[in-house]
Write a structure and sequence with these properties.
By secondary structure, the chain is an alpha/beta fold. It is built from 22 helices and 10 strands. About 65% of the residues lie in helices and about 10% in strands. β4 and β5 form a beta hairpin. This is ATP-binding cassette domain-containing protein.
């Protein structure tokens, strides 16, 4: 049960002063709380023996009042430090998770779905936080506070009465242990079901347009209802066991009360204890209700925290696929990029998606990459982004192997516009400033002109302050592409990667953007993948990929003379455009 504390020892070692102070303050508060019942018993005895005076009453009231004030102050201190520590734990774990997410490559996100990761970053972290806050409270109260009450009951009243009254305790320990094992198993299942539901909700929100287009609203609602019912049932199974804790505690405490009152009454009649001591004893028995209940809560919290920590640690233990070299080589700029017999296959696949790629690109050149769908165009760009490990052959920048350069260095040179544009749920200004945080409105309008977006911004309700919605839902496909282009342009990168980034714009807009690119990107390297030959015909180097291999390479004119795949595709597209115009 206490394995979770061992797993979190790194945190307790770091914040040992805070937790030591909190625990000491909690123990002091517990000691203070033990004194009032003794005062009550003493007052009752003095009433019984008619020795209670007004001065004595005032003395007891003043002591009682002083204890209340002192208890309040100390309780505030332990509460602030203990639960403040729990908040720090949640913050640290959330930061560790987020840092880990940002380091991960696509392989990680293929294994863990977004909904599952969100569940771990919310529900599971909350359960871990409970362990480092409420868990410590219940640990101290179910052990030290309980022990102090038992010692006071036995030492100051009667050990015999105390031990007989606490006969139910061993039974409670056995029952609580059984409950804990069941809760751990059921809570793991409940959290997994919650993750599945999260994934389903995310997919439904992202695909809401498709769901409506195919009139699948009712089917989607029914599927969601089935999943929520599953989550409900699994949490209900946890709640059923959880609900057994309190009544079990009450039954056991009730038995203790019965024993205490019955046997304690006989001791009073025999003058072995006083009436005041019996009253104090019963107050202490009442005070034992919380420590006994805390035992159940402790097991509950520990098992939940342990299950959640295992889930989070499983994610955090996933190794980084692409690592920085121990001693990275420093170079000032990417003067040339060389591919020499580069081959690559994705994890979980047996065939190569790139095979013996040879390419030499000098600084300032534009490289056009074309080919059939699935030919390996995007895969080639991903080698520069270093999203996946394990390429074979030699890939170098300025004569230095890309594996000897730090990730921060290579990625700082690159701006990337993927096939599926990712826009954040912020304003257009904030989305473009993602490429350059301190970009002025003047600079933003300049790159929007390059991306041919100025006419669009004029008709949007709030101009640059227009919110694009979840993943840019309020913008058309072409508008999203051009905002993504503007975001890349404002970075003014050494290497610009455009992965079919003009597919959603018309031919006239494409030609305008390409013309701007030719003027603005002089002296800097650009890679463009496209299905339309018009998007890359200006490139100094054009390569045609087929099944991961380069089958044609050269300038537009050279490839047209070869009369191969490129020439046939170009001529076909020209005919299609003429037919559309006519």
């Amino acid at each position: 049960m206490f394995k979770v504390f061992k797993k979190l020892d790194w945190f307790f070692k770091q914040y040992w002063k805070r937790y030591t102070f909190a625990i000491i303050a909690l123990i002091i508060a517990s000691i203070i709380d033990i004194i009032p019942p003794k005062l009550v018993g003493m007052a009752i005895d003095e009433i019984q023996y008619q020795t209670l005076t007004m001065d004595r009453i005032l003395e007891i009231i003043m002591i009682y009042g002083g204890l209340m004030v002192l208890s309040y102050i100390i309780s505030f201190l332990w509460d602030y430090n203990l639960f403040g520590g729990a908040a720090i734990m949640e913050k640290l774990m959330r930061s560790r998770l987020m840092t880990h997410f940002l380091k991960m490559t696509p392989t990680f996100y293929e294994k863990y779905r977004t909904g599952d990761l969100m569940a771990k970053a919310t529900n599971d972290l909350k359960a871990i936080s409970m362990t480092t806050g409420f868990g410590i409270l219940t640990l101290v109260d179910s052990s030290i506070f309980m022990l102090m009450i038992i010692v006071v009951m036995g030492w100051t009243i009667s050990w015999k009465l105390t031990l007989i009254s606490l006969i139910p305790l061993p039974i409670m320990a056995i029952v609580m242990h059984k409950y804990g094992d069941v809760i751990h198993e059921r809570f793991m299942k409940a959290q997994a079901a919650f993750s599945e539901m999260n994934n389903d909700v995310l997919e439904s929100i992202r695909g809401v347009r498709v769901i409506r287009a195919f009139v699948q609203e009712k089917n989607d609602e029914q599927r969601f209802n089935r999943m929520t019912e599953d989550v409900y049932q699994k949490n209900l199974e946890v709640a059923k066991v959880d609900a057994l804790f309190e009544p079990t505690m009450k039954i056991l405490v009730g038995i203790s009360y019965t024993i205490g009152l019955g046997y304690g009454g006989t001791l009073v009649f025999k003058n072995l204890i006083t009436l005041g001591e019996l009253v104090s004893f019963n107050i202490y028995l009442g005070m034992l209700i919380w420590p006994m209940f805390a035992v159940g809560e402790l097991i509950n919290v520990m098992q939940r925290g342990n299950a959640s920590l295992d889930r989070v640690n499983d994610t955090l233990s996933y190794p980084v696929d692409v690592k920085d070299p121990d001693i990275p080589v420093e170079i000032t700029s990417p003067d040339r990029i060389d591919f020499k017999n580069v081959s690559f296959s994705y994890p979980e696949t047996s065939s190569d998606q790139l095979e013996k790629i040879n390419l030499n690109v000098k600084r300032g050149q534009t490289v056009g990459i074309v080919g059939k769908t699935g030919a390996g165009k995007t895969t080639l760009l991903r080698q520069l982004l270093r999203e996946y490990p394990g390429h074979r052959g030699e890939m170098s920048i300025s004569g230095v192997s890309i594996n000897e350069l730090s990730l921060a260095t290579t990625r700082s040179w690159i701006a990337y516009v993927p096939q599926e544009q990712i826009l954040f749920s912020k304003t257009i200004r904030e989305n473009i400033q993602f490429g350059k945080v301190d970009a002025s409105d003047q600079q933003i309008y300049r790159v929007m002109e390059l991306a041919h977006f100025l006419d669009d911004i004029k008709v949007l309700p709030k101009g640059l302050d227009t919110k694009v919605g979840e993943s840019g839902v309020t913008l058309s496909g072409g508008q999203k592409q051009r905002v993504a282009l503007a975001r890349a342009f404002i970075k003014d990168p050494e290497i610009l990667l455009l992965d079919d980034a003009l597919s959603a714009v018309d031919g006239k807009t494409e030609s305008t953007i390409i013309a701007h690119l030719k003027n603005e990107r002089k002296g800097k390297t650009t890679f463009i993948t496209a299905h339309r030959m018009s998007a890359i015909q200006h490139a100094e180097i054009i390569i045609v990929l087929d099944d991961g291999k380069i089958i044609e390479q050269g300038t537009h004119e050279k490839l047209m003379d070869q009369d191969g795949w490129y020439a046939n595709q170009y001529n076909l597209q020209q005919l299609e455009e003429q037919e559309v115009i006519s």
